[in-house]
Amino acid sequence: MSSKEYKPLIPPAAAGIASLIVPGLGQVLSKQVRRGLLFLLSFVTMSAILYSRAVDLGRRAGEGWPAMARALERRPGFIGGLALVLIILWLLGAYDAYRCARAGRKVNTGIFGLILLGFFIQGWQIAEIDLVKMVKQAPEALPPLSRIMWPWEAAFDRDTEVVSAGAVILAGEGDHPERVPEEEGKPYLISEPNWGELSQRDDNNKMVPGTRITVTGRGFEPNRETDIWWEDPIGNEFRPREAGEYVVVTTDDEGGFSFEMNMPYQLMPPSAKGPFYHTIEARQITPVGPLMPSEALRLTVARMVETIFMGMMATVFGIIFSIPVSFLAARNIMSGSRITMFFYYLTRTILNIIRSIEPLIWALIAVVWVGLGPFAGIVALTLHSIAALGKLYSEAIEGIDHGPIEAIQATGASRLQTIMFGVIPQMISPFISFSIYRWDINVRMSTVIGLVGGGGIGFLLVQYIRLLDYRSAGIAVWFIAVTVAILDYVSAEIRNKLK
Known about the structure:
Blueprint: H1 12-21, H2 25-29, H3 33-57, H4 65-74, H5 76-103, H6 111-126, H7 131-136, H8 138-149, E1 156-171, E2 188-192, E3 195-196, E4 200-201, E5 207-208, E6 212-218, E7 225-231, E8 237-238, E9 241-242, E10 245-246, E11 248-250, E12 257-262, E13 276-293, H9 295-328, H10 331-334, H11 338-356, H12 359-370, H13 374-398, H14 402-410, H15 415-449, H16 457-466, H17 470-498
Parallel strand pairs: 1-3
Antiparallel strand pairs: 1-13, 2-6, 4-5, 6-12, 7-8, 7-11, 7-13, 9-10
Helix pairs in contact: 1-5, 3-4, 3-5, 3-6, 4-5, 5-6, 8-17, 9-13, 9-15, 9-17, 11-13, 12-13, 13-15, 14-15, 15-17, 16-17
C-alpha cells in the first residue's frame, strides 16, 4: 500500500514529542496502533518491574526515591543498567514515532530488540542467576551427582558378617564408666578419656566442639576399612562426622588403629536427667553370600510398574471421555445451528481452561480430593488427557476430507449416520496415533506428579532425595530414563506403522 493510505494524524515532529510525553502515543497517532500499544505496555511493564525490584532491594531505606537510591547502591549494575535501558528506550520510542509518522508505515528502529534486552536483564536478576556461585560450588555437587549417575552399588545387597567392639563414654556429670577388660582373640576398643562434653550450639547457632577423645582399637581384621558408629543412651545410632565426612579408619597390619575425634553433637531434651552414657563402636562389615536385589531396587521396580500403569489407565480414561467431547469441539460437526455452535464454543472454552492448568496442579487438587496415592495421579492425568486429546481429536476431525461426507449426505443419511460412516473411518489412524503419543506423555508426567503425592516412581524419588540417599535416587532416575526411552521408541514405531 502507498504511504498516502497511512497518512499520520500529526506531523512527524509532533509524533515524536507525543511519545516523549506518553510512550507509544506518537505511534498511535501515526496510525500504528498495535505498535504503539505494544510499546506502551512493554515500557510500563518494564518500569513497574524495575520499581518493584528496587523497592524490594531498598526496603530498609523506606519507599520511593530513598528505596531507589539504596537499591542503586546495592545493585548498581542491575538498577543502573536497566534504568539506562529505559531512558534509551524512551528516547528511541520518540524517534520511532517520528520515523513512523514520516514514512507513513512501520520502520525498523530496533526498538523491540531493546525491549527484549531490558526484559532479559530483569529476568537475569529476578531468577538470581549466579554463574560464579555455580562454578565455585561445582566440587560440592560432584559427589552426590556421581552417586546419582552411577548408583548400582546400592542396587544389590549381600548378607553380611559384622566384627565390632564398643566403648562406653560418659557425657556430662556422673560416675565414670568402668573399662571392659580386653579378651584374647576378640576385638577391643578403648576411649581416652572415657568422659567429656558433647558438641553443642551456642546462642548464635554456631557449633561448639565437644571434648576431644582418642579412640584406640585392637584385634580387628588387618588392612580393612572400619566404620565408626555412635549410640546415644536411648539406643539411637548414627555415624559421627569430622570435617563434614563420616569417620572411617583403616586398620594396620596387626588389626589395630588409633584416631582422634570430637564428641559429636546430640540434641537432648531439657527434661532428660543424667548421667548419660553413650557408646562408640567400631564395625567391620564383610559381605557374604550371593548378590540379591536391594530394597531400593525392589521398590523402584514396583513403583516404575505402578507409574506405567498409571499412564496407561489415565490414557484409557482420557480416550473414553475425549472421543465424544472431540465431536462437540469440532466446528464442521457443530456448525449446523446456533445452539450447536453455543455448545462448540462452550466445549472449546472448557478444554482450554483444563489444558492450561498443568497436571502437577491437578495432582495437588486430586490429592486433597481422593488422598495420596496412584489414584490421585490417575485423576490428574485423566483430566489433562481429556482436554489435550479432545483438542487433538477435534482438530483432526476438522481436517478430514469432505468428499465422502457429501456423498453419504447425498444418500439421505442422518447426521449420526454421516458421523459413523463418513467421519469415524477417516479418524481411526490419527486417533490411534494421538492416543499412543498421549500414553507416552502420561508416563513421563507420572514421574513428576508423584513428587506431590500422586503415587508412582516420583513419590519414591522425592523421598530418597529428602533422605540424601543419592544412590537410591540414582536408581530411580535411571529407571525413569530407560522406561521413557523405551516407551518413546515403541510409540514412535507404532505411529510409523500406522502411517
